[in-house]
Amino acid sequence: MTAVTLRALLALPEWAQSVRVLAGTAGLGREVRDVRPSPGPAPDHPVTQGELVVVAGPMRPGDWRIDALLRRVADGGGAGVLLPVDDLLEGTRRLGDRLGVPVLVTAEAPLERLVAARLALAEPELDRAELLLATHEALTDRLRPPEEIVAVLSGLLRAPVALLDDQGGVLAGESGAAGLLRPGEPVPQRIELSDGVLLAHPALLPSASRPALWLAVRLHGTAAARAGVVPPALAVAAGAVQRWLLAHRLELERDARSRSALLGDLLRLDAEPDADLRRRAADAGWRLGGWHVGIRIGTPASVDNVARGADVARALRGEGIDAVVVEHGDGWTAWTTFAQEPVAGQVRDLAARLRAAHRELGRSVGAHMGVGRPHPRPEGLAATIAEAGDAARLAATRPETGHFLHVDQLGMAQLLLEWTRTDTFEPAARALLAPLRELPGDLVRTLAAYLDAESSLAETAAVLGVHRNTVAARVQRIERVLGVDLRRRDERLALHLACRTVILADEHG
Amino acid sequence: MRIDPADVPALERGVALLGSGGGGETVTGAMLLRARLAAGGEVTLTPAGDLPAGARVVPVGLVGATAVFDEKLAGGGEFRAAVAAIERWTGERADALMSIEVGGLNGLLPLVAAAELGLSYVDADLSGRGLPRLDQLSLAAVGRGLTPAALAESSGQVLVLTTGTAADVERTARAFITSGGGWAVLALAPIPAGELAGCAMPATTSAALALGSRALAVGDSPDRERLARATGGEVLALGRVIEVSRWQGPARHGRAGFGRGSVAVSDHATKSLLRLEMENEYLLALRDGRPVASTPDVLAVLDRRTGAPILCDAVRHGVEVAVLRLAAAPFWTHPARLPVLAPRAFGIDCDPVLS
């Protein structure tokens, strides 16, 4: 709240010439919260915390009641006394020093000092109100980008203002305060500096647990005295930043939706894209020709992909990777395009830089990354992105690789097999085979052996050590129970994978 | 109890302590008493109860500027003249004398007068301590009034006030003294010994003597505890006078007011500041701005080394002192009489702070 010290009052023009400090100099830094008149040296009210008692009526400098008044001020935590006398007894001076109660005297009308002091006490309130109004008028007429908000606020406060991101990094304005902010605490902050004070206000997005941005102002030297005045204005400006963020986000989301739709269309390509699709890709600035390397970045569902898209682009740019990034599902799909088929060294170099970008991104977003192989032409885009997606799914379960996988590191078959061991496949496989497991006759092993033996009853019987008629009967039962036709390749393949997964899991489990 | 010349220093010390800084310098009074005793005079402290109930006791004392009394000694006949005047006016013969005020000079002079006039001295007084004004005497406080009263001035004038309130007597006595020699002897109408219990303070002279001999017995530079134990009082401060300030008090009844002042004592042990407000007596003590003692309790400032009480008009900067509080006579702490001697009776807007 209002913090005016006795020293500050003594600097007032009405005080500077006419008020002297005769005792209790040590207490001049005391905060004055109230200035009240007293008709005589014995106030008709209890002295309150921070009260400066101004004795209005004429009095004798030697009056014992001055001593009693000093005691009451000391007991009540008052700020001091102002007396209409020109001198004090030595004993009274000593008492003021002893009790630490500042004793001010004036030969002129004490009530005029009182009026000036009351105005000074009210001044921060007025200052605050005026600054708040000015900020409101300057920032709320229309939507402004954060750079402009920072400039306007800096002008109003006559102090350096900065817009910081949630890592404390400077986005706009100037500030030596980047490292001082505590971004983890989404509340207005006041940080004392050696030469002043840093005030910061968060701009929160709805439903986000952490502030997206911070508005910070650094008050130096004498400006630090306004530290109590500035926060409301800062809050109004942070509100303007917040409005801009919300509006900007609408645009981002619209944009993200159209890009995601375009990507979907491209991924479904199985022939040359038509003219309309080419046109939309060109409008989006996407190159369909050349050799593409797909990148998939997956995130937990809690991450706000739209807002974080800029972080991904920045992380990739930081490693010199020119990539298209599209918000897609729980994460981002991205790709980079080479004009010619990349040589092995180029691919390795790209993978290394992607790994670095992934690490950088990991500072703010917990994400896993998969990278596909280079494929040419628009339809190759879908292929490399699909590979990247598979690799990313694997990466999610592989902390040992730092949640990063490049398809080149794996044979495709291995990749596919690995894929069957994911959390999504295995339960499905178990569900598929569950009816067999409830029946007698080791049907799962029979089915696996049958499929391994390329549907040969004789070989299956040899492997299992039973009669081929037994195998035939079991296969019929399997087809009946599962409702499948093992002559159909899709069903055969699915069941083969399911058997392998379940048997492998049981052996390892 | 018979007063022996050897008792005089103790009596002097006792009455000086009870003067509360006022009551006048006691040196001359003590000298006169010693001289009277040496010349064969006899003074016996007679308890009021030992007299027949009908015995006439005349309260006497010196009023006015006691400092002038030192310079302008008694002609010798003032007490006799005042007592004679009141005897003539009332038609009653004085059987005994008593003091109007045990504190200070008037704790001694009535003994001298009794020896001089060959009357008994009753061990009682009308103040129990030092008091500045006649209208504060116990007779006035219980509503008996002071008239008739006789005043004998040193240049020979005798004035008898036959009627009037206590305040009238006070005012007229002051005017008479101011126009005369600066002091006068007052004699009030005789009080039957049987009525003294209701309007006077008993056994105060013998108490002063006892207090004085205990105070003398502690010797030089007593510590806080010894001093308190010997006097039965409370030591408010033991330190150095860092400031004495004096000013003219507000005028009263159209006459210039008494001189006023304050004394600041810095306590050596606690470093606290004890401030004494004074008029003719020390009236109020504040420690670090908080009232800690007041009239009607007796406040005495003693020379730290000799233990001799220092009068209000003699206290000065730089002296090492002990400030002592002695409990008031029970007469004054009675709620009906407390306002007569409470600080507000002296124009000090503060509630009484009693031990």
UniProtKB/TrEMBL annotation, chain B:
Taxonomy of the source species: Bacteria, Bacillati, Actinomycetota, Actinomycetes, Pseudonocardiales
Residue ranges of domain S-Me-THD N-terminal in the record: 7-162
Highest taxon of the lineage: Bacteria
Name of the protein: Uncharacterized protein
S-Me-THD-like C-terminal domain location: 168-351
